[in-house]
Specification:
Blueprint: H1 15-26, H2 40-72, H3 87-118, E1 129-130, E2 133-134, H4 137-169, H5 185-207
Antiparallel strand pairs: 1-2
């Protein structure tokens, strides 16, 4: 009888089984596992492999949960959590959490400013810095657009208020609103206010 070097009752790792498990792992199959009843070094190898695959499985499921919670349900305070993750595993989780924070900040800032505008507060602007670094790219462009919008709205309201006070309250005829850099509907609104003020001025002068 050929000597296999295996004592009766010992459970050894089949190399073909290990190769098949590694190939499945490489294909992204995180359900693959090696037997958990192996002895000695083979048992330690199987345990380490199963732990690594299990950790990948947990990370994958946690990222799927985040995709659903943050991306689809709008729960922007959600973050990835992977207890027991060390080294680069933990770095990967922290990188995803930092990415979410960096993407959420401009959205939250925009919502804050628009909410303030809806309440009549035109003093608020978007913060163009995210904690320790300035916004860049599309985030910076969006921030500037929102701040420009608030600035133009503030200028328009200020000028309309001034013209209404001068013409309607103080009797200073001929007042006109001047809002720099406006276009489209903003310019139409400004022109309509000026037309109204001019008509009122003309009517008063005709009476006089």
């Amino acid at each position: 009888m050929r000597d296999t070097g295996q004592t009766a009752g010992e459970h050894k790792l089949d190399q073909r089984q290990l190769l098949a498990a590694l190939r499945a792992f490489r294909r992204g199959d995180f359900s693959v596992r090696l037997p958990d009843d192996l002895d000695g070094l083979d048992g330690e190898l199987a345990e380490a492999f199963n732990d690594a695959v299990g950790l990948n499985d947990r990370i994958s499921k946690e990222f799927e949960r985040l995709r659903d919670a943050v991306g689809r349900q709008g729960k922007i305070n959600q973050r990835a959590a992977l207890p027991g993750a060390l080294g680069s595993w933990n770095d990967s989780v922290e990188a995803v959490n930092s990415l979410i924070t960096d993407m959420v900040h401009p959205t939250a800032e925009m919502a804050r400013v628009i909410g303030a505008v809806a309440k009549g507060d035109l003093s608020q602007t978007m913060d163009l810095e995210n904690e320790d670094h300035p916004l860049r790219g599309e985030f910076l462009r969006i921030g500037k657009v929102v701040n420009t919008m608030v600035g133009q709205l503030g200028s328009f309201v200020s000028e309309v208020t001034r013209v209404a006070r001068e013409v309607g309250t103080e009797g200073k005829l001929g007042g006109q609103a001047k809002v720099a850099g406006v276009a489209g509907a903003w310019k139409d609104l400004t022109d309509n206010v000026n037309l109204m003020a001019a008509n009122l001025t003309g009517q008063v002068r005709n009476i006089a």
